[in-house]
Amino acid sequence: MAAYTVKHLDDFERSGRWILARRSLGVGSFGLNVVEIEPGQNIPEHDETGRDQEEVFLVLDGDLVFVVDGDRHPAPRGTFMRCDPSATRTAVNESEAPAQLLIVSAPRTSGYEPIDWA
Which one in 24, 25, 38, 47 has a CA-CA gap of 20 to 30 Å to 31? Predict the structure, then answer.
């Protein structure tokens, strides 16, 4: 396997509305996917307690609403959200245009160590 992978979003493997970034890039240490959310759709409401995963979401395009433990947060393009494993979360598209959402996840026990300057 090569030491790096370069791909355009259009070249990633797909499964329905899910763009399988992790699989397409060969990432093995954390989850990484993009989902296309049409108007009136959402990602499944869920928590990650069973897998002890922390998740980060980034709205790549469009406007979404993050709903976390019942609290609603408008999320236009460029909005990030981080969730502990226990938080129940979803992203809802209440707009009239499609949206794209990047989801990154890893177990809190992954062994990640932040560098001093970041």
Answer: 38
